Amino acid sequence: MVRPELEHPRHRLLQLPRRPPPGRVDGVPPHRRSPRQGIRHVTSTPAFVPGLELARRFYTEAVAPLLEEAASGIPHSAARIGPGSEVLGYDTPRSADHEWGPRLQLFLRPRDVSRHAGRIGHVLTERLPKTFHGYPTHFAPTGEDRDIRVMRPTDGPVHHRVEITDVSSWFTDTLGFDPTSTITPADWLRTPTQRLAEVTAGALFHDGLHTLAPARAALRWYPHDLWRYVLACQWQRIAHEEAFVGRCGEVGDELGSAVVAARLTRHLMRLCLLMDRRYPPYGKWLGSAFARTPAGARLTPVLTAALAATDRHERERRLATAYETVARLHNRLGLTDHIDPTTRPYHSRPFRVLRADRFTQALLAHVPDPTIRQLPLPEPPDTEP
Predict the structure, then answer these.
(1) Does 310 share its domain with 173?
(2) For an engineered disulfide with 151, which of 136, 172, 315, 347 has Cβ 3.0 to 4.6 Å away?
């Protein structure tokens, strides 16, 4: 079984820039625009708008009216979920260089997808505005990767990013299972936390189908027994390596000690997110997500100092502080009996550790379902084939 690996922040709504004058695309007159010109070549870039707010306005002002014309009365849901920095709330102006812009998902009933998706897509292609509040609605492949698309001005049909599908198909394609039916423990544990973050964050603009909101709610967090198991696995990852920071340094391997400390830091950051019921995102956004947890402000300087330490004693001391802080956070959750949060020597060796396996075993002892309690724990790193 694959081992287990976030509630999106609210955005402050920003005022959208005014539309460019008629005859211009992103403020560039047609006679000054090359056919291949893209967002990186325009002379005027619109004021940045968080992608979720841009998508919300795009649906309300542009897509919904055309949908009513193309398929009046057909129930639908609309959202911006799935991959994309804006879904997790981490987009910046830099994000506009690929797969960012006026885009969303449009969900229909399965029978309506087969009957009406083609017509709806055609109407959007022909009738969507070429720009929306200064941003092109046309997406074209980059020269380097045909699978990655970017906003480009166009005078022809709009190759839009309004994905038209049904709820069950979209989730099955994204996660490998359909949350509108039964979700098994294997479904939960096979799914990377980044994927779970992508489908539960983002924004729901309209749910006329009355199925998208319940599907997202079903995925909001692990069932209680599985949450304990996932936490137990994360503590076990720490237990495997917490003594190696000191041992590597003792034999003169400061680089190896630093590498282990970096991995332990990542484990602690992910653990704090899991304890706060937030799905840890992948590496690019892990630090950003961690900073928004209750423990982030307190632990960031401690973990930063551990990573910056040049000798194993300082590294070990900083990590010990972090271990004890996270252990106290665990006790506040009330998921187990109280566990002594202080660090101690590693058996007869002079290395400061928490003995994180104590937390693993305590969590498993409070899992009543034997099928979950007996699931395998992570093996030590670099020992698996």
Answers:
(1) no
(2) 136
